[in-house]
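Long-time lurker, first post. I've been practising inverse folding by hand and with some scripts of my own, and I keep getting stuck on stretches where the structure tokens seem ambiguous. Below is the full token string for one chain I'm working on. Before anyone asks, I'm not after the true native sequence, just a reasonable design that respects the backbone. If someone could post their per-position residues I'd love to compare against what I wrote down in my notebook.
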């Protein structure tokens, strides 16, 4: 039995690695990729996405462009990261004729794919929630076609990772970019599995892990992933901005759920003010979510290393 999945990512190096990881999972049937122009500039992210799909033999998968823009823009240096990815030798050498672009914007693409599904679909989101929130606001009946929403987002009992003016630092970026959509999504009472910083803080990108990946670089995906992660080691200005396997952890859950433990909680999102984008415990809100808490890091690392040995 294969599991149908729609992915909505926002073009970060971590998102591109997540797409690659997803494509190594034999039980996953990827039905389409939406790109939110949040932590990326769309064109470079789309080029990288198309090449990864082609390298993994899935150039039949359509890419849909997000036409919604969040309230709080990501830093430009982060948004430009896929440009470095596209300049890596393995990516440059891979020919790309035309981008396999969908003819409708991402929110409509998601709605069309959900409407066409004959069994419930898992939606994996590794960026902001704007497209899915808009799709389900326009077509509320499509909620029943969703098996699970898996979203890298939030920070509950740990500090956030937003460091900017007029903000207290409590929010995580994927929620902060468009807090209003995040609030709407939570109100929809979907089967929601969240990967907040509380869990992803356990999986920084370490040189020890990259050394292990380098040992198996004769496998194309290991070589490529090692090059992607290398670009994240030095680009970060501050210790708060240490690169993590944020999206990679949320994606890994689809193939190795045993490496993660969860808690069930009622939650809410603050959508304005100095803590806009903060995710909080909200007993009585009725908005239940399954929230990743602890990670068996050795098991997770072994899983990624095994997947990136697949051809
Ligand atoms: O907040 C984590 C989210 C994840 O979806 N992104 C990166 C991951 O793709 C934003 C982010 C936080 N810190 C960053 C980020 C950094 N230092 N560089 C780029 N993006
Ligand atoms: Ca992301």
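-- Answer (accepted) --
I ran through it position by position. Result:
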């Amino acid at each position: 039995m294969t599991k149908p999945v729609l992915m909505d990512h926002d073009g970060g190096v971590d998102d591109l690695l997540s797409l690659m990881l997803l494509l190594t999972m034999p039980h996953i049937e990827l039905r389409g990729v939406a790109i939110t122009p949040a932590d990326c500039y769309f064109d470079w992210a789309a080029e990288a996405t198309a090449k990864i799909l082609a390298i993994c033999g899935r150039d039949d998968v359509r890419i849909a462009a997000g036409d919604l823009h969040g309230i709080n823009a990501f830093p430009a240096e982060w948004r430009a990261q896929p440009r470095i990815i596209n300049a890596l030798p393995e990516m440059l050498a891979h020919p790309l004729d035309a981008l396999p672009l969908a003819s409708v914007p991402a929110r409509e693409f998601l709605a069309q794919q959900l409407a066409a599904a004959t069994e419930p679909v898992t939606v994996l989101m590794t960026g902001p929630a704007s497209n899915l929130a808009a799709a389900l606001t326009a077509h509320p009946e499509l909620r029943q076609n969703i098996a699970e929403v898996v979203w890298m987002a939030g920070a509950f009992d740990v500090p956030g990772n937003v460091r900017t003016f007029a903000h207290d630092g409590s929010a995580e970026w994927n929620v902060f970019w468009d807090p209003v959509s995040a609030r709407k999504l939570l109100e929809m009472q979907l089967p929601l599995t969240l990967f907040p910083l509380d869990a992803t803080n356990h999986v920084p990108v370490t040189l020890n892990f990259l050394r292990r990946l380098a040992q198996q670089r004769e496998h194309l995906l290991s070589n490529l992933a090692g090059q992607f992660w290398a670009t994240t080691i030095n680009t970060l200005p501050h210790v708060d901005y240490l690169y993590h396997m944020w999206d990679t952890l949320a994606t890994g859950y689809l193939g190795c759920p045993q490496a993660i433990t969860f808690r069930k909680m009622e939650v809410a999102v603050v959508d304005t003010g100095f803590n806009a984008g903060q995710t909080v415990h909200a007993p009585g809100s009725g908005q239940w979510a399954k929230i990743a808490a602890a990670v068996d890091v050795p098991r997770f690392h072994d899983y990624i290393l095994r997947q990136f040995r697949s051809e």
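A couple of notes from the structure itself: The chain is about 35% helix and 15% strand. The longest strand covers residues 260-269. Happy to go over any region you disagree with.
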